[in-house]
C4-dicarboxylate ABC transporter
Amino acid sequence: MTAQLIALGIFIAVFAIAAVRNVNIGIVMFPVACIVGLWLAELSLNEVIAGFPLSILVLLVGVTYFFGIAHSNGTIDWLIRASLAKVGNRDALFPAVFFALTAIISAMGAPLGGLVMAPMGMSIAHKRGIDPMLMALAMGAGLSAGAFAPTSLFGIITWGTANEAGIALSPLLLFSVALILNLVLLAVAYVLFGRRKKFDAEAPAFGRAMVAHGATLRQYGGSTLDIDDTTGGAGDGSDDELVAPGRPTGMQMLTLLMMLILVAAVIVLSLLGLTPDIGVLGYGLGAVAALLDASSGKKAMSRIDWGSVLLVGGIITYVGVLTDMGVVDLLGEGAVHLGSPLVAAILLCAAAALISAFASTTGMLAALVPLALPLIADGGIPGWALICAIGVCASIVDVSPFSTVGATYVATTVDEEARPRMTKLLTRWGLSMVVLGPIVLTLVLILPGMAFS
């Protein structure tokens, strides 16, 4: 047991040190996994490396490359422009529209890609007198919902890891749970912050405000989208309008068709009880698009989410070493000995939420989903319910200002005087989700799952 505890302690220490130093946790974790595997687990180097999740790598690279092409050839920008133009002056719809748009972009491989909507959303909120807190929560909920789509990072990691462990979890079920819960959070945000607020009449125009803040978000695959500071038909500067884009180009229409094919293939295969290989589909569609538009294909190479590949790969490789050493089984036995598997499940969800509020959500999912397996096997907890609960709990806290998502929403709030208020309210919201998330998901998922299993 001494060797097992040492290995677990090293895992926690490496995770914490890399997070504090703001270094990709997977890059540090992978060589340490090799050292621990050789030294403590008495495994060969080939056995350690065999734990690297190649199937998840294929998923991430294939999906992010295909949607990288959609970004590069302007399809995503066209889709955003066309959607916003439909809203017109119906200000109350803007938060819901930004929820949907952020969810769609987040579903395209990398959840943080949804942050490209932040400067635009916060600028529109400022101009139209919408509470910035409502807009931030709407986009945060959309990002969380889209992240669990079968084509996005959180969904790929969560159901991919579960399926590799033999837990039957439909990717559409996982996405549905995340979508429904985040729609509820959107409704709560409307109730709490839906009252219009008065802002300075000399607020900066859309385009100027967005450009000023948007430059800081290029690292998230920043869109080239801009909103023109145009005038109402008379040209007197009396109003700002969202101008509809022209017709999409032939390549953009083909890309939209490919996106529909990918989504339809995932839905149909899942309904047929088959596990769709989304990575292979992404590779195939990306290859066709690259052959037809070589320039966009080259640009899309820089949009492949290598950071997430390295992060997940390193953590899961180390978790594989812990599994071979019996550490995961040991933790499962400890959880069962708490006296109530339900209490252990709530604590696991709470731990995922609390740590994710300050650290990497991707890392939390990669680490905690495997650690939940013994509790599922020995404690009578339905696997699909617990895995869904852990995933969603780790995601809904991401609007905390201590995370990348929350910090971005604070930074892109146009009115500098409103930023302290945003920080305070987002902190309260994020920490409340640490408590309410596990309780609510236990009541609506885990308990009913135990009753009907």
About this structure: Residues 198-240 have pLDDT under 50 and may be disordered. The CA atoms of residues 148 and 155 lie 4 Å apart.
